[in-house]
Structure formats: structure tokens, C-alpha cells
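Example 4.3 (complexes with small molecules)
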Amino acid sequence: MTHTARIAVIGAGAWGTALAMQAARAGADVSLWARNPATMSAGRVMPRLPGFALPPTITVTSELPRQADLILLACPMQHLRATAAMVPACAPLIACCKGIERETGLMPLQVLTGLFPHSVLGVLSGPNFAHEIAAGLPAAAVLASPDRAQARRLADLLTTPAFRLYASDDPTGVQLGGAAKNVVAIAAGAAMGAKLGENARAALMTRGIAELARLSHALGGRPETLSGLAGVGDLLLTCTGQASRNYRLGLAIGQGTPAPQAAQALEGVAEGMATAPALYQLAQRHDVSTPVIATVTGLLAGTIDMAEASRRLLARPVGHEFA
Ligand SMILES: NC(=O)c1ccc[n+]([C@@H]2O[C@H](COP(=O)([O-])OP(=O)(O)OC[C@H]3O[C@@H](n4cnc5c(N)ncnc54)[C@H](O)[C@@H]3O)[C@@H](O)[C@H]2O)c1
Ligand SMILES: O=P(O)(O)OC[C@H](O)CO
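Answer. The structure with SN-glycerol-3-phosphate bound is encoded below.
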């Protein structure tokens, strides 16, 4: 008899809820930990996923898992440390958030490694809007862990024909891709909001990828990861998909709304807001030039406006493309 995998999802935001639905589709026994489980019951529309009812196969709970085969941490990046610290080390843990911890400059796996030095750990990332995963539409993502065989084994627990979860042993490249794409999406949205044109957006996306490549190289990520789902794949989706909260944040800033008000008006978290300054500091520590990330950091902090942002980027010397 084959064992039914027990998957615990921690965090009932849009992504945690969608991942719980995907895990149930993959045949797992799924529990979804919510900070406020009273708002979620079978058949009822889910708070962070309007238009979707909670399937009866998912158990919503306020009890943290004591036994599981896999734990998916799907809270926002800035709450990963506090959320993970509550979870018993009873199973492999996968961080499903995208970003850099503001106070420490650490990536999700580094945060988890500090808390769970003896556990199997990984990250999940890729071009995935939660509402599309919830609807069962075709998509692909990457599960990365330092151990390639573990990555494949854990990815198999969530894979279905419509959700193709590739394995990777380059968590650094995967995490930098997920963090940087949100910052570049703010730049892309701002360019569109300020009516700078599609050419400007394409240029920002491409130069954003160049920044990501330099940073990843400095931190030991592999170049091919950046051309994969968690790199270019997610950057394309987030810089062009109107559903992206980071893109919409940038759009509002480009239209003249100050960043704090624009962020407050959003439904849900825009990870680029806290990650931009953290990524910029990380780049500075490694002596990596990241003008797009620096400009977004200035826009978000309110130290420059859209006109100055545009002026600064356009005033940069034009050298060799891959210098
Ligand atoms: N929504 C998506 O399409 C999507 C897709 C892939 C990855 N992600 C990533 O998943 C992560 C979570 O995003 P989301 O879209 O599910 O969030 P969300 O915007 O839907 O909701 C935010 C969640 O954070 C929780 N929260 C608020 N304060 C908290 C605290 N102090 N401690 C712990 N949790 C707290 C809220 O209860 C809520 O569940 C982010 O890193 C995001 O980049 C999101
Ligand atoms: O809505 P965003 O900008 O947080 O993007 C959601 C996902 O990360 C897209 O892959």
C-alpha cells in the first residue's frame, strides 16, 4: 500500500491557500495553518483568494503540525523568521516566499538554516499567480534544495500534469531570481505608469536581468538558473502581468502616488517594497553595480521622484552591453 503524503501549509494568504489546493490535487493529505482559521471553512470563499471556495479535502487549523512529510512556509518574507520559529522541526521545510530579509540581508534558505540546522530545507519559486494555480491552470515552478535528490523527491510530492515542479540544486540562483523580479517589476510598472513606453519597460527588464546576473555570480548562483523559471520566467510574468502586486505598486508610483500610500492601497503584500533596499545593500556589500535596483530603492524611500529616477538612469554612460 502506498503512503499518502501529509503536507502542512503554513500561512493562508493567497499563495498558501493556492499551494494547499495544489497539494490536495497531487493526492496529499493537506492541513492549512491559518492565523485566523475562523474565516475559513469548507465551501466558503477564501479570504485571500476571491472567487474560490475552500475544498473539503483541506483541513484548516490553528494547530502547528506535529507530524508531516513536508511543510510549506507560505508567509510573507519579512514574517518568515517569526513564523518558522513556531514550527516544530518534524519534516523537510520549504520556504515559498520571495524576497530578502530587510534587517539581515538574508535569503529565505539562510533564515531557515539558522533556525533548523539539521533539517532538509528548500525553496519553491517560479512564475505563478496564486489565482491561476488555484484554478488548476497549467504552470511550472522550481523546487531548489542543496541536495539534488531531495529536491526531486520533494518536488514529486506536489507535481501534477498541470503543475510541473522542476528540481534544482541552486537555491541561491532561485532565491535571487524570486527576490529581484519583484524589484524590477516595480521599475517596469513605474515606467508604464509614467507613460515612458513599452520600449523603456523592455529595456528595464533586460537591464534588470543583467543586474541579477551580476549579483547571482557574486553570490555563487549558477547562470543557467537565471534563464530558468525562477529567473527570467518569473521576471517576465511579474513585469507584464497586470495581476502582479509589485507591478501595480510601480504603476501607481509612476502615476505620482507616493510609495507608502500606493502600498497601502494594494490587496496583499508587495515583497519588492522591503526587498529593494535589502537587495541594494547586498549588492553594495558585494561591490555589484545595480542601477535599476538602486533607483527603485530611491523611489520607494521617496528620496527621488519619477522624473529624477528616469533622469538618473538615462544619464548613465552607455558602454559595452555585457561589460
Ligand atoms: N500571491 C501570489 O500569487 C504568490 C505567488 C507566488 C509566491 N508568492 C509569495 O508568497 C508569499 C506570501 O504571499 P501571499 O500572496 O500569500 O500573501 P497575501 O498578500 O495574500 O497575504 C499576506 C499574508 O500574510 C499574513 N500575515 C500578515 N501579517 C503576518 C505576520 N505578522 N506573521 C505572519 N503572517 C502574517 C496574512 O495573514 C496573510 O495570510 C510572498 O513572499 C509572495 O511573494 C505569492
Ligand atoms: O503579485 P506579485 O507581484 O507578488 O507576484 C506574484 C508571484 O510572485 C508571481 O510569480
